[in-house]
Amino acid sequence: SDVCSSDLNSASYINEVSSATTSPTGHYDAYVLQENSATDIHQIYFGNASYLPTLSISTVYTASLFVKPAGRNQISLVFYGEGNQPIYDLQLGTCTYEPAGTAGSIQTLGNGWFRISTTVTKTNNTNGNVAVVLVNGSASTYAGDDTSGVYIYGMQVEPGAFSTSYIPNTLWANTRPADSLTLKDNTFGQNFDPERSTVMVDAQLDYRPSSKLVQYQRSTLVSFNDGTESNRVSIVTESLNSPVV
């Protein structure tokens, strides 16, 4: 996937302050977005237009960000000019608002961190600006307390309907191969007997509101095959009461 990420620059009514809290990498390189006392939208976005990616109309994009509460538990990740977009609750670990035409996802990580992602189809402009907006009681316009905020790390914008692994970069787009793992017979086969072995998969799925689930939708967690479609075993998860095949 082509990926573009950048350091976030401070915008109106937000202070960007270096943080003593470790990011998901374990290093002290997270930031804290701290609201001021104004009654306004408390947000942060790309401040230097020369660093902004140019997006394509009618193309699906996903923005993702690692976040952790720092006094404020609600947050939104918003593509510029594309209307209302999902709201995430960092206390509940859920997407509490997901308007039509958007998709929101939240993953629970360790040490209080989450990874949130917003997916939209660009329809109004090619501007690649994505805003991180603090939310209070589902309202994006409110009187700040000059203290509360959230920790952030690893903003990323990429084409596609879901976020991929984070790729650190600064001033230009970066690329990498697809996220995939293939074990050949000479490694996997040493420890797996297809006639006697048991496979257990411990997986944590992204949160999705039940109203947004597609009935009978199937997602593959892991698949074993010989390179063909006719000889394979897959472990899958299915939404709602779909039949087991």
Descriptive terms for the model:
245 residues, mainly beta, 6-stranded antiparallel beta sheet, 2% helix, 38% strand
Query: Which H/E pattern describes the elements?
Result: EEEEEEEEEEEEEEEHEE
Q: Percent range for helical residues?
A: under 10%
Q: What is the radius of gyration computed over CA atoms, rounded to a whole number of angstroms?
A: 20 Å
Strands, count: 17
Give the distance, in angstroms, between the N- and C-terminal Cα atoms. Answer: 32 Å
Unreliable sequence segments: 1-13
| Major sheet summary line | 6 strands, antiparallel
Could you say which overall geometry the principal axes of the C-alpha atoms support? globular
Proportion of residues in extended strands: 35-45%
**Mean residue pLDDT:** 77
How large is the count of helical segments? 1
The strand order across the widest sheet is 2-3-14-6-11-10
Structural class: mainly beta
Describe this structure in words.
It contains one helix and 17 strands. It has one helix at 185-188; strands at residues 2-3, 14-18, 31-35, 39-41, 43-44, 60-70, 74-79, 87-89, 94-97, 102-108, 114-121, 130-135, 141-143, 149-159, 174-175, 218-225, 232-238. A six-stranded antiparallel sheet has the order 2-3-14-6-11-10, with no helix packed on it. A five-stranded antiparallel sheet has the order 5-12-7-8-9, with no helix packed on it. Strands 1-15 form a two-stranded antiparallel ribbon. Mean pLDDT is 77; it is low at 1-13.
